[in-house]
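Reopening closed ticket. The problem is back. First fold of the pair:
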Amino acid sequence: QVQLVESGGGLVQAGGSLRLSCTASGSISRVNTMGWYRQAPGKQRELVATITSGGRTNYDDSVKGRFTISRDNAKKTVYLQMNSLKPEDTAVYYCNADGLDSNWFLYNSWGQGTQVTVSS
């Protein structure tokens, strides 16, 4: 079983910054793509950014130029540096990862979510 634990959410004023972290643990042989998604009240969960094990990144247009995703493969950890935050960035942010577990079965796991609130 693969677990993802997020940290780093909180309350920040508009224009401020936060850094989210997410670490994968458990019976893991390989971690492929890691990413961040968010869900605001009354809305569907949406992609924020993803990064492959080789470092290729993908961002939603709404965060390009403000957010940066990165990862440390040795630590099985993904980060999301969020700058120039806006009130519309307020949401629960979820970490996601896929890969192969210790039995070489595919997995796709989610973290428990961390709240990010941006005040105006």
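Second fold of the pair, where the issue appears:
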Amino acid sequence: VEIVESGGGLVQPGGSLRLSCAASGFTFSRFDMSWYRQAPGKEREVVDTILYTSSMTNYVDSVKGRFTVSRDNAKKTLSLQIRSLKPEDTAVYYCHAHSSYYGLEYWGKGTLVTVSS
């Protein structure tokens, strides 16, 4: 199993980024996928979840209207489009896979997003 995030970097406030997560080694289409983030000195929090059916997404209030999650089951990828970035969005962003059916979960190693002028 491998989950690899990419797309992080340094961006100015108000800018945009697109994070990607490439998965392999498991049945991606049967897993719920989430983006988590962990800011310096804070606990990891979920920011977005898209179910394996792609029929629902959940948003944390602070990112509503700015973060958009999507998945491509054929390519086994998860994406997070982030707009209007704020300094408080600075964090390591992690890709997470979870299946209640299989009783399994997997984590990527994260990609760092730094929002600063």
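Update: turned out to be a display glitch only; the data is intact. The two ends are 37 Å apart (CA to CA). The mean pLDDT is 93. Please close again.
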